[in-house]
Amino acid sequence: MALETISTARAHGGVQGVYAHASAATSTRMEFSVFVPPHEPGATLPVVWYLSGLTCTQANVTEKGEFRAACAEHGLIFVAPDTSPRGPDVADDPDGAYDFGLGAGFYLDATEPPFAPHYRMRSYIEDELPAVIAAHFPADMARQSILGHSMGGHGALTVSLRNPGRFRATSAFAPIVAPSLVPWGRKALPGYLGADETAWAEYDACALIAAGARLPEILVDQGTADGFLDIQLQPHRLAEACAAARIDLTLRMQEGYDHSYYFISSFMADHLAWHAARLKG
Amino acid sequence: MALETISTARAHGGVQGVYAHASAATSTRMEFSVFVPPHEPGATLPVVWYLSGLTCTQANVTEKGEFRAACAEHGLIFVAPDTSPRGPDVADDPDGAYDFGLGAGFYLDATEPPFAPHYRMRSYIEDELPAVIAAHFPADMARQSILGHSMGGHGALTVSLRNPGRFRATSAFAPIVAPSLVPWGRKALPGYLGADETAWAEYDACALIAAGARLPEILVDQGTADGFLDIQLQPHRLAEACAAARIDLTLRMQEGYDHSYYFISSFMADHLAWHAARLKG
Question: Using a CB-CB distance cutoff of 8 angstroms, which residues of chain B are in contact with residue A257?
């Protein structure tokens, strides 16, 4: 579990690092970023997982997410993984499209060729990377939370729903909530998992909730000027699923905000304060 | 003075825009960004000018500067110009170096061929762009302040020193303070202005102060792990000039910080609060 340090920089009193390692889950080199806030020597800190959206690497949120001030204030480690395996041996969308293949791992373990060998982001995020974080950073793994954006909002919701009790807080910016029913998912899920839709359900937040998965509460912010709102995101489906399951969903429609990091960064401090209240209780 | 809107996005309750116009000063198309915070209809707001460093466009600080939350809190318009003229007709460093030519305008009006026709960033920043901002945004031009980073710190200091009374606050991150005496300046100043060093003095903060220019106070943050500190930045020269001139300089050496936007963004909110206190008094 050797870790390569790509870069570190002092920021907001802590250290923003970018790291890489040889992943057993994906059989590729994987990069991720970690912010460790200022802390007392020997202290361990809660860990916030941030899963990014289509086309992103760890760099988008690391550079544009405006999370470090809030993480420093609340004493939170912030972990940002990549969104897919990468490398010369990794299969991509045959047309090079942005919504499948590289940068579009959908946080699942693929079963279809040629994606099955490397596209194992579920195992990577749920099992392998937490062990790396626990081994190399001052992390209190008993206090974790998770959030994400768009495809990463889908990731945050589904990872948390499948692992009840692991995360003390779960939130999302403009998440994909029902990939089985929208174009992004109806391309990616058969591509990675095959045509049998029963295999898709564990990667669909609304389907997981319908099948009995539960979280105590969920926070979602969604911009009303988001160009993907009606076709790809459809947060009303999550609202209906949570209402039926008596999950306490706070869905905030944010007037005039789009799908970009200008939106995410506007509400990042809010989300982290909400996480911190639950991580420190 | 027609303005082209390249993009706008809602952010932190306000609007982050990127704009372009045909500049009379540089005879090129110039891009800049403006953040207008939430405000009452009809209100006018103080204007903070941010001048960027070598290699940057408006985009670096716009994406990585973490200024919007503070500008929204204090009600400040934030303007980020480009760092040089650009375009197919604009001369560049003959070797394409990063520290001269494109992205390296040094906020001066060049007199040497082939740079004189377009490299007129002093006139652009001091005269033309303020008129554009006044015409198109809810700006109270009686309340302006200025800050910048590295080459843009040099720009902020020299623009402010040459225009006493225009800016209610002047600050910088890791500024070039004596370009006449360091390698970056000893390449750029003769390249743009010719070999006669007397022409350089109005573009050298320490030389301006030595010649009698005054500001009531200056705030500077400088990282101790900045790779340019000893050779290019030498803030001790500014400290000596300000001490001799009885200018109230606050020079904060920030332990372990480098020259990057991780450093800038860590102290941006601090600077903007310091500016706001002076802009609102």
Answer: 9-11
Q: How many CA atoms lie within 13 A of B182 on its CB side?
A: 23
| Of the candidates A87, A130, A132, the residue with the CA atom closest to the CA atom of residue A105 | A87
The Cα-based distances of B63 to A57, A98, B34, B59, B139 in angstroms read: 16, 22, 12, 6, 22
pTM over 0.95: yes
Q: What is the tens place of the pLDDT at every residue in A174-211?
A: 999 999 999 999 999 999 999 999 999 999 999 999 99
The answer to whether A9 contacts B258, with C-beta atoms less than 8 Å apart, is yes
Q: Which of B74, B149, B154, B259 is catalytic?
A: B259
Q: Assess whether A226 carries a catalytic annotation.
A: yes
**Residue B214, C-beta contacts closer than 8 angstroms, at least 6 positions apart:** B161, B164, B245, B247
Choosing from B33, B84, B145, B150, which is the catalytic residue? Answer: B150
**Residue carrying the six token digits 């049998």:** A196
> What type of residue is A52?
S
CB atoms within 10 A of CB B197: 14
Give pLDDT tens digits for B21-34: 999 999 999 999 99
Determine contact: B257 vs chain A, CB below 8 A.
yes
- pLDDT, tens digit, 9 for 90 and up, residues A103-157: 999 999 999 999 999 999 999 999 999 999 999 999 999 999 999 999 999 999 9
Q: Do B10 and A66 touch (CB under 8 A)?
A: no
A89 among known catalytic residues: no
